Amino acid sequence: MSAVDHPAPRREIRERFGFLRRSYAMLIKEFIQLRRDRVSFAMIVMLPVMQLMLFGYAINTTPHHLPSAVLLQEDSDLARSILKALENTAYFRFLYEVHDVDDFDNLLKSGKVLFGVEIPRGFERAVRRGDRPALLVAADATDPIAASSAIGSLGMVVQTALKHDLYIGDPPEMPFEIRAHARYNPAASSSLNIVPGLVGTILTMTMLIFTALSVTREVERGTMESLLSMPIKPVEVMFGKIIPYVLVGFVQAFLIIGIGVGLFGVPVLGNLVLLALLSTLFITTNLSIGYTISTLVQNQLQAMQMSMMFFLPSILLSGFMFPFAGMPAWAQYLGEALPLTHYLRIVRAIMLKGATMQNLHFDALALAALMLLAMTVAVTRFRRTLD
After folding, report:
1. Stretch among 50-64, 93-107, 141-155, 237-251 having the lowest mean pLDDT
2. If DSSP codes are grouped into helix, strand and coil, which group holds residue 387?
3. Theoretical Cys-Cys bridge with 73: which of 112, 121, 292, 315, CB 3.0 to 4.6 Å?
4. Model-level pTM?
């Protein structure tokens, strides 16, 4: 009986060691493959590091030193004290001093400033007479998070500004009133901020991925070589790949804006033709970047990973999720190099403010420059891959 039973335990032992040996061989093989796939290995290291750095250093949900302008219609000691008190709250940073209402409104419409303070003529005289004049603070409330904290700090300004100018200690009563006017989004509705931003965010994600995967798929299947053997130039291949997705981008933008207007009551105060033209510029820029990504990678998985590597800083540094003006200077410089940053300003300004090309020329020029740069890099990289 024992002579018959001995081979069975030995076979089990051999099978067990064989299982471990084969599993160990597969483990080593996967590590070798991962080491060879440098793009995937870089994603494993860079994605958590990037998220940690951006959330730790660049993201600030209580922004300070927000760009502001003053419409100064009288230059008095009290007016200067009020402006100084506003700056001392650490929420306001006065970059512009204007003397015309139109300039004041254009600064807010273009997004160059988030706040405007208007000090009317005869303000100090009216305060000394006890007439309680009004001080107007206009806030760009298209981003409610950035505006709410600063507006909430206005109550402290009165005590600080008047303690040394008119009274010793606290004033017996409020000698003037501060009228805070939240423009473009008086109800501080988050949907009015998010829905226009979703147009740019969804277009960025889909245009990058669609183009990067489309070109990489051709390379993987071997159809790109047969395509290029035909009498067609690389730039013609690029435009042939890009133009269909421009139409796809239009359909996506139309759906998002239509749903936003119909379900969430988002207004469209500006020119739709201008919005369509600048959206075309933005879509083409992202498609060119996606095309460039396809020339850097070897397969569709790497294309997806690199697209997400570009998309992550875009949503974090563009002002979609967090106030752009609250980020440190280095993060703002990085954000200015991203197409989504400029398009968010454009789409929000046209839809919510009724802005014109005069108000948006800086962001339009920045998008055009980024598009030309991306197309140049894409064509250059594509030609090199053919050599």
Report:
1. 50-64
2. coil
3. 121
4. 0.82
